[in-house]
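Tip: read the tokens left to right.
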């Protein structure tokens, strides 16, 4: 896992680092996949999923703070991270017992409003069959290009 992100340098801190770079990156990625929009969402995601995350992350000092996520992610070169991300996904897919994540779009029946001229609500969801859990859901403007 850490070899996938080995090109990304751990930003220097003036004190002893208490969180592993890999832990921070993984929690950040998972938070964004789940719909997180910022550093606070990353911290909240980590706190809410702590029991699950500690099964495969070290988390020597628990979940990093929102400020820590910001300090780590802000200096990362986006192109470098973009190159590491597909390798991380590939490593997960190739892992023994890895699962395929179905992605499906649905239109919610009865969610339209004729009086206001608003069309029905279209949602695209990613589903974990193994855990019977929606991993993320995004509202789409229309049914095309799920």
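Filled-in amino acids:
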């Amino acid at each position: 896992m850490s070899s996938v992100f080995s090109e990304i340098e751990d930003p220097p801190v003036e004190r002893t680092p208490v969180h592993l770079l890999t832990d921070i990156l993984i929690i950040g990625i998972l938070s964004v996949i789940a719909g997180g929009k910022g550093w606070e969402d990353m911290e909240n995601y980590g706190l809410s999923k702590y029991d699950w995350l500690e099964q495969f992350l070290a988390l020597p000092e628990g979940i990093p703070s929102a400020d820590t996520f910001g300090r780590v992610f802000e200096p990362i070169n986006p192109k470098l991270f973009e190159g590491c991300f597909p390798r991380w996904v590939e490593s997960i897919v190739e892992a023994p017992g890895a699962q395929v994540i179905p992605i499906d779009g649905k239109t919610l029946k009865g969610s339209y409003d004729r009086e206001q001229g608003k069309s029905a609500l279209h949602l695209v969801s990613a589903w974990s069959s193994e855990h019977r859990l929606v991993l993320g859901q995004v509202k789409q403007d229309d049914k095309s290009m799920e």
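The beta strands are 103-107, 122-128, 133-140. The CA atoms of residues 109 and 120 lie 7 Å apart.
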